[in-house]
Specification:
This protein has helices at 51-64, 75-81, 83-97, 131-154, 160-163, 169-178, 194-197; strands at residues 12-18, 27-33, 67-73, 104-108, 120-123. The protein is an alpha/beta fold. The N and C termini lie far apart (46 Å).
């Protein structure tokens, strides 16, 4: 069973992102404040859950949370500030959208930037340790998947319905065949012969 809080007796927001390693589409982030006594045995790191279970857990998380929010940074913003900054800034956007101001923030991973004057703690593999980070990972992942499914309808040739923009062999082959779309991250290595193409 995952832990409820890193710091006890406070409003603690868990943050996580989805889509950092993708070649196309935005990076999404979520911030979630859960009740101190929240329990959900099936909740875990979203990467360890099936797609069906992630979507089953999403409304449970949303209804139980004291506050939650999902935000994103699109591919053009990613290209402008780099993917690490985009991931952090999208978490800041999600925190801005919370209806409650957290007393403490816990973030999956080992990199973050100060959010206002709120103390924070980074936790490596935190989405497999703390319920609020796991909840954020589920929200970020499912909302990003929803977005990529909509993009798939515009560009079905890239297989985003299946790969969600990640660098699968099918996705890379489609880029070689069709070129890139307005949704691809030009700062990423989109082609195997990246230097030749000059991107």
């Amino acid at each position: 069973m995952l832990l409820n809080n890193f710091v006890k007796n406070c409003l603690e927001a868990g943050c996580d992102e989805a889509g950092r390693g993708c070649l196309a589409g935005p990076v999404f982030a979520a911030a979630v404040i859960l009740p101190e006594d929240f329990r959900l045995e099936l909740l875990n790191d979203s990467k360890k859950l099936t797609e069906k279970l992630r979507y089953q857990l999403r409304p449970v998380i949303e209804s139980a949370a004291l506050s939650w929010a999902v935000a994103s940074f699109d591919n053009n913003e990613i290209d402008a500030v780099n993917i690490l900054n985009a991931s952090i800034f999208s978490m800041h956007r999600a925190l801005d959208m919370l209806k409650l101001r957290p007393d403490h923030i816990i973030v999956d991973g080992n990199r973050f930037r100060s959010y206002k004057d709120t103390p924070y703690t980074t936790v490596i593999k935190g989405d497999g340790k703390y319920l609020s980070i796991a909840a954020a990972s589920v929200l970020a992942k499912t909302y990003r998947d929803d977005y990529m499914i909509k993009l798939h309808n515009k560009h079905p040739e890239f297989g985003w319905l299946q790969n969600k923009g990640y660098p699968t062999s099918f996705h890379r082959s489609a880029i070689q065949k069709y070129g890139i779309t307005p949704y691809h991250r030009r700062s990423f290595k989109l082609y195997e012969t990246q230097l030749t193409f000059g991107f």
